[in-house]
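Need a sequence for this fold. Nothing fancy.
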């Protein structure tokens, strides 16, 4: 008996050892799959419940459980769950009385990162009103476009954004739009104050009947994403998608005892859905900042005992570029245990861990409007996710071969797409099913259709085209390679090339513009560059062109480099060629065409010399 026991124990130990050798991530895989199945069952329960149980209801349950628990820390002030609930009641009642809002009415929020963003959204949710989250960096034409495509009749703005409102106010008034400013006073005709109305309103709870018809498929939000169209598109975010995004914290191991640090803009999916809404789902405390500050980041983490942080690749790099602290373990003197985000380079990832300690980095791949995403739930540096059979069963996807020159999928003689091999870069596409729908863009059926890809694996099937190139290794890890089409990413923001080109060609000297993103050593993403041709008989007007881009484009979208060409190369279908231009970059030693650099200190475009190029490479000039 003893011999048999010894043999069985030995075989068990050998099996565990072999599993550890050949399946080193088995434990993490099992934990992720189990967590995903549990969350999937919860979502199924919410779908089936009557009345529909929304994230708002989850928040209200948290209010009942711990009304005095701090929900948001902001600039030295604390707002409890009970505070946030009462303030949102006042917002809802004020808007109900002043703007006559009712269930289904869309409202555009043009708000900065501040607590009023959160309680205003909660107030709108209590009325059953979808909110359009406007990027507070956009101005003029882009602002009007973003506002109009969500079909809103009400616009609510932060007091600090009054100047941007005044630029578009005549058009808004022509369209009969009600404009409200988060202020006690305003002397501008056509802009109504809202803070004074909120302060006078009752904070009593509102009837659930006000949102009685909201269900899992109803629109909860409009979040704007740049793509191949140029102007931003309003991605329709349903309540089902809100729930799914809120679960990301749970999958990454966040618990109700954690303290979550948000320094990303709330108008994006990461800050609002994963961060703020995810915090409501977990019932945790949030530390909210107006904007990211590398110098104050760790001080904030220590002050508030932060345990979970959000990042984009740029924020990780900024933190790694801060001066080193000499004191022993000084840089590891914090409680942060999890970092959730996307877009970090492998070298920065490694340096971040070496400097700041054993933080579980949970790198994501997803798109606001997409139907497929990945999470790297292991400690594998560089991967954006991991393939497993449960994930693929519920959210079917594939990588297909893609021709980067023609910018289209490679198809076989039968007209079907060809699956990319393991280790080969391919275009990620997600099959559109009831479980993984693609809802599309508000007021933009043409661009919705462009993201649909048909006859992929078999005739008649339908897939969502992510527009992203990825590859899978033989260990089932997923890696992001590049973005295709007319979009690049800089400072954590998607930049649509055609929108930038439209602004450039408004300059009196520029005839045509071909905008693209180029890599800069030591920086995440790609910075804006444009090859332009000049109007016949015109010289390049560096001052007017500078004023044009600064007046109409946010800082991250302004092309920092211009290349003056005699003509722009076109494809056979009259599309501007970009691949060669991207590869050539902006090195004046290798390019004969005149090059210019946007110099914010001189407030004009200046000739790009080799000295400037070297200063950029050495990071003496900050971009």
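Here you go.
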């Amino acid at each position: 008996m003893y011999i048999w026991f010894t043999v069985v124990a030995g075989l068990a130990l050998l099996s565990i050892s072999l599993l550890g050798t050949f399946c080193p991530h088995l434990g993490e895989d099992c934990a992720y799959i189990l967590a995903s199945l549990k969350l999937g069952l919860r979502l199924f329960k919410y779908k089936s419940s009557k009345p529909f149980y929304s994230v708002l209801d989850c928040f209200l349950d948290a209010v009942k459980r711990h009304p005095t628990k701090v929900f948001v820390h902001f600039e030295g002030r604390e707002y409890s769950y009970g505070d946030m609930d009462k303030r949102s009641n006042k917002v809802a009642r004020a808007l109900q009385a002043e703007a006559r809002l009712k269930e289904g009415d869309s409202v555009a929020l043009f708000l900065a990162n501040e607590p009023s963003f959160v309680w205003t959204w909660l107030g709108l949710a209590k009325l059953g009103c979808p909110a359009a989250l406007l990027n507070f960096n956009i101005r003029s034409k882009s602002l009007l476009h973003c506002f109009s495509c969500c079909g809103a009749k009400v616009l609510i703005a932060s007091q600090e954004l009054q100047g941007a409102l005044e630029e578009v106010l005549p058009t808004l008034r022509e369209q009969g739009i009600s404009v409200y400013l988060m202020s006690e006073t305003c002397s501008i005709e056509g802009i109504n104050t809202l803070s004074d109305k909120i302060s006078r309103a009752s904070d009593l709870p509102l009837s659930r009947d006000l949102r009685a018809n909201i269900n899992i498929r109803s629109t909860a939000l409009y979040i704007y994403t740049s793509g191949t169209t140029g102007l931003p598109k309003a991605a329709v975010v349903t309540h089902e998608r809100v729930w799914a995004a809120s679960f990301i914290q749970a999958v990454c191991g966040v618990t109700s005892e954690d303290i979550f640090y948000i320094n990303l803009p709330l108008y994006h999916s990461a800050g609002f859905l994963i961060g703020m809404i995810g915090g409501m789902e977990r019932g945790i405390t949030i530390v909210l900042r107006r904007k990211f500050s590398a110098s104050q980041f760790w001080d904030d983490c220590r002050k508030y005992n932060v345990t979970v942080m959000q990042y984009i690749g740029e924020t990780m790099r900024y933190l790694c570029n801060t001066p080193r602290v000499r004191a022993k373990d000084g840089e590891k003197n914090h409680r942060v245990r999890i970092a959730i985000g996307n877009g970090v380079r492998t070298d920065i990832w490694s340096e971040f861990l070496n400097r700041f300690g054993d933080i579980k980095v949970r790198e994501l791949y997803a798109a606001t409007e997409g139907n497929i995403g990945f999470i790297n739930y292991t400690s594998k540096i560089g991967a954006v996710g991991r393939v497993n059979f449960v994930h693929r069963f519920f959210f079917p996807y594939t990588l297909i071969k893609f021709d980067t020159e023609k910018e289209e999928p490679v198809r076989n003689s039968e007209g079907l797409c060809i699956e990319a091999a393991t280790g080969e870069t391919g275009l990620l596409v997600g099959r559109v099913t009831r479980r993984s729908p693609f809802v599309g863009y508000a007021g933009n059926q043409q661009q919705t259709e462009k993201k649909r890809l048909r006859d992929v694996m078999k005739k008649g099937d339908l897939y969502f085209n992510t527009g992203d190139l990825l590859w899978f290794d033989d260990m089932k890890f997923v890696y992001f390679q590049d973005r295709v089409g007319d979009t690049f990413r800089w400072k954590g923001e998607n930049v649509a090339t055609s929108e930038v080109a439209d602004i450039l060609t408004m300059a009196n000297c520029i005839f045509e513009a071909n905008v693209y993103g180029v890599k800069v050593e030591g920086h995440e993403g790609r910075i804006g560059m444009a090859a332009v041709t000049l109007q016949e008989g015109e010289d390049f007007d560096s001052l007017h062109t500078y004023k044009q881009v600064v007046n109409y484009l946010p800082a991250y979208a302004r092309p920092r480099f211009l290349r003056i060409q005699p003509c722009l190369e076109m494809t056979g279908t009259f599309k501007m060629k970009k691949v060669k231009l991207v590869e050539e970059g902006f090195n004046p030693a290798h390019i004969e065409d005149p090059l210019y650099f946007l110099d914010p200190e001189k407030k004009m475009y200046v000739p790009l010399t080799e000295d400037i190029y070297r200063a950029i490479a050495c990071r003496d000039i900050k971009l």
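For context: The chain has a mean pLDDT of 91.
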